[in-house]
Amino acid sequence: MFDLVIKNATLPDGRTGVDVAVQDERIAAVEPGITAEAGQTIDADGLLLSPPFVDPHFHMDATLSLGLPRMNVSGTLLEGIALWGELRPTLTTEALIDRALRYCDLAVSKGLLAVRSHVDVSDPRLVTVEAMLEVRDRVAPYLDLQLVAFPQDGYYRETGVEEALSRALDMGVEIVGGIPHFERTMEDGARSVEALCRIAADRGLMVDMHCDETDDPMSRHVETLAAQTVRFGLQGRVAGSHLTSMHSMDNYYVSKLLPLMAEAQMAAIPNPLINMMLQGRHDTYPKRRGLTRIPQMMEMGIPVGLGQDCVMDPWYSMGTGDLLDVAHMAVHATQLGSIEDKRAMFDAVTVNSARIMGLEGYGLDVGCHADMVLLQARDTAEAIRLRPNRLKVIRRGKVIAETPVERSRLSLQGRPEVLNPASYAPRIAV
Ligand SMILES: [Zn+2]
């Protein structure tokens, strides 16, 4: 007898008619026609059953602060950083925890059960760190939260940040962050990459840097990060977030850079929603869109995980906590429109990011944690097109969030009375 059996699901890899059985919080069987008794049975009715969504790049300390103390008028990254600087001295642990917990509620309702959040360590009070460590503990039963020590205003711009970052790591933040393109000079940026990689090597930690989130085609911190990764033996433990300078770089130079990234086993974490909004602000027309080179990276075998970055904060006034919004934007902005491409973008908001974050027991294989999301869509391409309701969100074999099936009632003569948006899935031979 199993604790839970989900009957007749379609899996992200395209398998259909699959039953998934859960025992003791782990997946115990994945096969058609499971007949054993179960404490609870869910009929998936042929819909898509996925492992949970994963957001590998977020700012949980800033989320839901939109409008505090004012709105970002220019809409630029730099005004966002300045605005956050105004808000920061007024932050309290209590308010930070409250907003983060509210955001996590939203995330869970969207089937988003793992988040890597950068935490600003620029204010030596470290209230942000204190608050996010508390949040990490409180959400642990339902959401895996990883924390990155992130010097938002630069590692070398202000005195005291080096010490604060180190203290944040001592307090239990588990990943080393950075922002080399925001240091005063290219040289300071390069020095910061070296220093931060050394810290990660000494402490045995992963690295995830905001790296070249700029439209400057001459910015060279991605190559520095790749080189220092190799130098310190950090292969497979380093991610570069944003990497938007690569959009504007010369093609010849990129043909050198991509192999360097692959050699360093560096992962890439593009954030399509926010970078479509922030980049190209100094252009007239043609206007660069500033998203990094996702298709070329995938061709090189560089792991790509897509992040949200921000939801309703000084940098981005939109956002829903739904990683399918992120994949939807990526499909458009990168013109990855084939069925295979869409499946790859679905992987970029699920398995790829889980791998980048090093999540244990993630996936739909026997032995994995029984964490799953049942979507009102037939397959991965339809999931990205529809961004449909999450009918069931399951954590360790228990349903922790439910949303009813979306249906519209029509009053049209001679037409159906009820419409289910998921019923429009095309029957295409792949
Ligand atoms: Zn960020």
Brief summary:
The protein is of the alpha/beta class. It is built from 14 helices and 17 strands. Bound molecules: zinc ion.
Give a description of the structure.
This protein has helices at 77-87, 93-109, 127-139, 161-171, 186-203, 221-231, 245-248, 251-263, 272-278, 294-299, 323-334, 339-348, 351-357, 380-386; strands at residues 2-9, 18-23, 26-31, 38-43, 49-50, 53-58, 112-120, 144-150, 175-176, 206-211, 238-242, 267-269, 372-375, 390-395, 398-402, 408-409, 418-419. Helix 3 (127-139) links the parallel strand 7 (112-120) and strand 8. The strands form four sheets. It has a seven-stranded parallel beta sheet with strand order 6-7-8-9-10-11-12. Strands 3-2-1-4 form a four-stranded mixed beta sheet, with no helix packed on it. With 430 residues, the chain is an alpha/beta fold. Helices cover 34% and strands 20% of the residues. It starts with a strand and ends in an 11-residue tail after the last strand. The structure holds zinc ion. Zinc ion binds next to loops. Zinc ion binds at residues 57, 59, 118, 210, 241, 309.
Measured between the Cα atoms of the first and last residue, the distance is: 37 Å
- Share in helix: 25-40%
- Envelope shape: globular
The small-molecule ligands in this entry are: zinc ion
Q: Strand order of the main beta sheet, please?
A: 6-7-8-9-10-11-12
Q: What is the average per-residue confidence, as pLDDT, rounded to a whole number?
A: 97
Number of helices: 14
Major beta-sheet overview: 7 strands, parallel
Tell me the Rg in angstroms: 22 Å
Which stretches of 5+ consecutive residues score pLDDT under 50? none
Strand-pairing-aware structural class: alpha/beta
Strand content: 15-25%
The tally of beta strands, per DSSP, is: 17
